[in-house]
Amino acid sequence: MLACNGRSGHEESADLGCRLGMEMDRPFVYINMATTVDGKITSSAREYPRFASAADRRSMDRLRAEADALIVGAGTLRADNPKLCVRDDEMQEYRRSLGKPDDLLKVVVTAGAALPPDSRFFDDADGPRRIVATTETAPAERVDALENLAEVWRLGRETVDLTSLLQQLGARGVERVLLEGGGALNQAFLRADLVDELNLTISPALLGGRDAPTAFEGEGFAMKQQKRLRLADLRREGDELFCRYEVLRDG
């Protein structure tokens, strides 16, 4: 493990987020993703990923416990219908010890506002803390339907303005934002220089396939534009590797 001063990687990450939060006019943004050894987050058929372990699920719960808000893309919501909450009782207690409310503020980013109303995202059992971030050009009938289920923020004309989204979340008191993909949303945040940390679980599996999605999709970077990282923490549990990277910035 590479964490400094005998402290856990999670504690180092939380402190880093606090320090950066005082320097930036937006919340600290960290990504959590699990991939196969060849970098895939699911198969070419977009099946529900079944290669991560109980250890990875517990790590995900801890990262969620430390977040004020959790953001996913519409594609992830439609494909996986994830339950965006802290499931582990011990991690829920840990969250309370941090002074955070039981329910995460949940945000979905969708340019066209095409979301299934029966999604777990809109489940009242998880509480009403949810926001749909969409665009000015999203169809009015879709937006009207969603306004009965969540707060709807229109940010940007053709694509969601992610900087404005973070600024508005910051105005709501959000300090730490966890981003859980998919790959297109991760890349959009990275391209906008809005990612501070990457938590990556490397699972002992191979999927292959040129059409199988990765943790960062869409238009990639030219070699001279590549994003550089610093490995801040590394641990092994069984055959899985848990990596925490800081995103480096010039200057």
Describe the structure.
The chain has seven helices and nine strands; from the N terminus they run H-E-H-E-H-H-E-E-H-E-H-E-H-E-E-E. By secondary structure, the chain is of the alpha/beta class. It has a single domain, classed as Dihydrofolate Reductase, subunit A, CATH 3.40.430. Strand 8 and strand 9 form a beta hairpin. The radius of gyration is 18 Å and the shape is globular.
The CATH architecture would be 3-Layer(aba) Sandwich
What number of domains?
A: 1
**Approximate helicity band:** 25-40%
Average pLDDT for all residues: 90
The strand order across the widest sheet is: 5-4-3-2-6-1-7-9-8
**Could you say which overall geometry the principal axes of the C-alpha atoms support?**
globular
Into which percentage range does the β-strand content fall? 15-25%
The CATH homologous superfamily: Dihydrofolate Reductase, subunit A
The count of DSSP E runs of length 2 or more, i.e. the number of strands, is: 9
* SSE sequence, one letter per element: HEHEHHEEHEHEHEEE
Largest sheet: 9 strands, mixed
Q: Please write the CATH class name.
A: Alpha Beta
> Which residues sit in consecutive blocks of at least 5 with pLDDT less than 50?
1-7
CATH topology: Dihydrofolate Reductase, subunit A
Measured between the Cα atoms of the first and last residue, the distance is 27 Å
The computed structural class is alpha/beta
Radius of gyration: 18 Å
Number of helices: 7
